Amino acid sequence: MTYKTTPQKTNKAIDWREVEDRLEAASIAIERIWTPTSETTRRVLKERAQILAREAVPVEAADEGIDVIEFLLAHERYAVVSEYVREVYPLEDITPLPCTPAFVLGIVNVRGEILSVIDIKKFFDLPEKGLTDLNKVIVLESRDMAFGIVADAISGVRRIQRAGIQPSLPTLTGIRENYLLGVTVERIVILDAEKLLNDGKLIVQEQVG
User: Fold this and answer.
1) Would you give per-residue pLDDT tens digits along the chain (209 residues)?
2) DSSP character for 93?
3) Same domain, yes or no, for 136 and 111?
């Protein structure tokens, strides 16, 4: 005959102090896992700041640059903001005009439109250096005015950062300096097309017969 033995229950008292100590130790362990140290917090914040700074650079850079048309004239490099350039036209059949300032080379017929043509080197009273081809006319245009400036060759379109533009050209003073946006470290003279187009002295009202 088999007898089953019933486990005897122990009446040992629960040590609540030990339970509290274990719970406190577990809480501290969990807090260490989920709560970063001050050094970790600084590192995470620094990394986030660097990421945000990198993301902001393209927007800021876009605001700092200007698109220009670069051209050559008498071996000097010039540029004009592209938004004021309507077209580049071959310089052909220019008609000289008497009793006009020396910087006005004459007028041309561009598809039925009569435009005055300006030599900016003479307008800025700069000395002539070497021979010029003068085979291009850069047509500048605003809402109310349009005229051409001569160039030997068009170098192309490029983007120039505003931070790299010096405010003035040391060789120019007075009224001529007011027509410049500045000069780059590469010695590219950037013309202020808006001011040029708003100057009535540069517009010749003349008809070609």
Assistant:
1) 555 555 555 556 667 677 677 777 666 655 555 555 666 666 766 676 666 666 554 544 445 789 999 999 888 899 999 999 999 988 888 999 888 888 999 999 988 899 999 998 888 877 666 556 778 999 999 988 999 999 999 999 999 988 888 876 666 655 577 888 888 888 898 999 999 998 876 666 554 44
2) S
3) yes
Q: Which of 75, 60, 80 is nearest to 158 (CA)?
A: 80
* pTM exceeds 0.70 for this model: no
Separation CA 28–CA 31 (nearest Å): 5
**Domain stops at, among 28, 44, 63:** 63
- Per the structure, the complete domain to which residue 167 belongs is given by 66-202
Question: Residues 84-110, buried b or exposed e (16+ Cβ, 10 A)?
Answer: bbeeebebeebeebeeeeebbbbbbeb
Question: How deeply is 154 buried, as exposed, middle or buried, from its count of CB atoms within 10 A (0-12, 13-18, 19+)?
Answer: middle
